[in-house]
Amino acid sequence: MVFTNKYWGPLESNNQLITQQRRDQELQIVSEDCSTRKKKAGDRDNDVMNEVYKTHEAIQSLDKSISMLQMELSASRNAQEQQKTDGSSTTSEADGVPPRKKAFMVIGINTAFSSRKRRDSVRETWMPQGEQLRKLEKEKGIVVRFMIGHSATSNSILDRALDSEEAQHQDFLRLEHVEGYHELSAKTKIFFATAIAKWDADFYVKVDDDVHVNLGTLAATLARHRSKPRVYIGCMKSGPVLSQKNVKYHEPEYWKFGEEGNKYFRHATGQIYAISKDLATYISINQPILHKYANEDVSLGSWFIGLEVEHIDERNMCCGTPPDCEWKAQAGNVCIASFDWSCSGICKSVEKMKFVHDQCGEGEEALWNALL
């Protein structure tokens, strides 16, 4: 007989152990399978979101294309109606009118007969001159012009002086408009109508001649909104409606805005703003029936208030003069435009424009390197 100290567990206990191990293995397999499925599901979710984003972009692009076609159709019908009214059936090409030039943006610098020194201060700082101005149009599609109408007296000394200045610089866009401070709303309408008849651009910009502008930063900012169908870009504000007479910015039609003390609807401040092509087309087509308020920026805002328009509040379009724009430039946040709110432009801009440009300018290469 042989004795041993080994203990042999019962067969039933061993079977339970094997069953437990098998269960653990099965649970691990199931767990790993779930993790794999979750990962695959997460990847599928990301793929779906990417497809949704691409589809949204495609719809936005299509919406812009449809909008532009509608606007161009309306413009064509409007032109045909005008031809019928005038008793003319010839085309613009047959009349010797050149076709519209393609551009990225057209900038109209609002100026007056008495503002020669202001214009020179702009030419000496942020506005390219001569061959550089033509190169800017050809290579970047950026058109910059001083916009001005005519004096009340035909061929006056003011007009002749401007003709001489134009011969020297070739940087004016002459408007069929009689100049006058209280005619800025009418001038704005005529500018957009004239500009869109001459250039087929993505954006049209109005700026005052006592404002400093960084053209490269402006172009890069507008390029980010290129795919949107109807945009109105500027420093949006909502100031009080001034009913008192003999005050600056008095609103004769104050009663239309409700009770005394009310504010205007949100609109871009008048020193600088930009609108997309279809909005400029809308203004051109509907010129005769667009109401003019006393203040030009209010007028523009009122023309869009009932339309499907995206208002973009771009605070870089209303920086203060140094040190404000200087600090922002040093921090890498270059301003689009700079001026003094207290003067509705740069105070004493003729003397101060170069200083603002030196402190807040984007640098010569920024404009030519801007991705549009």
Automatic annotation (TrEMBL):
A Gene Ontology term for the protein's cellular component: Golgi membrane
Gene3D superfamilies the UniProt entry points to: 3.90.550.50
Positions of the DUF4094 domain: 1-78
Enzyme Commission number(s) from the entry: 2.4.1.-
Keyword Transmembrane helix: yes
Membrane topology: Single-pass type II membrane protein
GO MF annotations in UniProt: beta-1,3-galactosyltransferase activity
Origin: domain of life: Eukaryota
Cofactor: Mn(2+)
Record-stated family: Belongs to the glycosyltransferase 31 family.
Name of the protein this chain belongs to: Hexosyltransferase
Species of the source: Sesamum indicum (Oriental sesame)
